[in-house]
Every structure is written in structure tokens, then in C-alpha cells.
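Entry type: protein chain
Record version: 2
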Amino acid sequence: MPELCRFFGIIITMFYDDHAPPHFHVRYGEHKAIMTIDSLMLLEGHLPPRALGLVAEWGALHQDELRDDWA
């Protein structure tokens, strides 16, 4: 699973040719989550509120790149 970004202890990764809907994986300490690219909503897992906010902000800034990576 290629690592796309790492910041503040948060690791963002993406499986290529993964199942729909388009999404990316997030790890933060012992927490794991899957977040959609289009709506930036959690599909699975849990993140602390502050980490979730940082990931959502990062996702919004990089949404076009994430869509390109998914395609």
C-alpha cells in the first residue's frame, strides 16, 4: 500500500485497484480509518476528532490529486 503523505503522526495510504467507492486509508497511532475521497467522510474506523479534522482538511486540499491517484 503506497504511502501518499505523513504529517503529525498521521499516515495516509491508498491501495490501487481497490474496491469502490474511491477512498484512502488513514493510520494514527492505534487508530485506523478509511475515508472517502469525494465526500471526505469516514467509511470505516475511528480517528480522534483533532486527527479527523486534520485529515479532512488535508483531503480537501489534495482532493483532485487523490482522484487522479485513484483513477
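Comment: Residues 49-61 form the longest helix (13 residues).
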